[in-house]
Write a structure and sequence with these properties.
This protein has about 200 residues and is α+β, with helices and mostly antiparallel strands. The chain has two domains: about 5-110, Aspartate Aminotransferase, domain 1, CATH 3.90.1150.200; about 130-195, no CATH class. The protein has eight helices and four strands, in the order ααββββαααααα. The protein has helices at about 5-15, 20-35, 95-110, 130-140, 140-150, 150-165, 170-185, 190-199, and strands spanning about 40, 45-50, 55-60, 65-70. A four-stranded antiparallel beta sheet has the order 1-2-3-4. A hairpin with a 3-residue loop joins β2 (about 45-50) and β3. α2 packs across α3 (about 95-110), α5 (about 140-150) crosses α7 (about 170-185) and α6 (about 150-165) runs antiparallel to α7. The longest helix is centred in the middle third of the chain and has 16 residues, at about 95-110.
């Protein structure tokens, strides 16, 4: 049996004038698609659950957002919070039957224990090594060997530390320290790593 949350009533009542009919309509469609849905408030806006989160909706000053927890259900218009782009009127929504179909499928997937698809991790490219560091590494093969074996994260920490120096003198000191630490096989934050390891 569906459970309505009075906090969702209050959320809709406090929404902007244009948003209230949109939020009311979405709420009705969600209940039509999953009669046993339960309402709650998470992170300050309405969520709808049935054996896990199905979807959520939110009203903002200039638009509404609506999206499914399992983002793969819907070909997204937007990378923002909702998958249907900026909703400013009921006409921005797909047909009722389409939304009800998404709700039913989300409920079916929750019932079957299907987990949301993991978002692909963004891999940062290798950092661009500045000329002075590149020359210093070539002059000390053992330091260059250690640097080349480091992860992009460890390389980036050294590159940023050197390039963020405010004066040429500071940069030169950091460059010398970098080569010294690399010869010893140390990543940029080795001091911090040793402290945490001994705790």
């Amino acid at each position: 049996m569906a459970k309505k949350d009075p906090r969702v009533d209050a959320y809709i009542a406090n929404a902007a004038d244009f948003a209230r009919p949109i939020l009311k309509h979405l709420r009705a469609l969600i209940h039509a698609g999953c009669p046993e849905v339960e309402e709650t408030i998470k992170w300050g806006f309405p969520h709808f659950e049935s054996k896990g989160v199905l979807c959520s909706m939110a009203g903002f000053k200039g638009h509404c957002a609506f999206g499914f927890w399992k983002r793969q259900l819907v070909p997204a218009k937007s990378e923002a919070m909702g998958q249907f782009g900026r909703i400013t009127a009921l006409s921005d929504l797909p047909k009722d039957s389409v939304i009800i179909g998404y709700v039913k499928e989300a409920a079916r997937q929750n019932e079957a224990g299907i987990k949301p698809a993991a978002r692909p991790k963004k891999v940062k490219p290798a950092p661009k090594v500045p000329a002075d560091l590149s020359m210093a590494l070539k002059a000390i093969p053992e330091a260059e060997a250690v640097f080349s074996e480091f992860s992009n994260t460890n390389k980036r920490e050294y590159v940023e530390w050197i390039t963020e120096a405010k004066t040429p003198e500071t940069r030169a000191k950091r460059l010398a320290t970098t080569i010294e630490w690399l010869r010893e096989g140390k990543p940029r934050n080795w001091k911090y790593m040793n402290r945490t390891a001994t705790r």
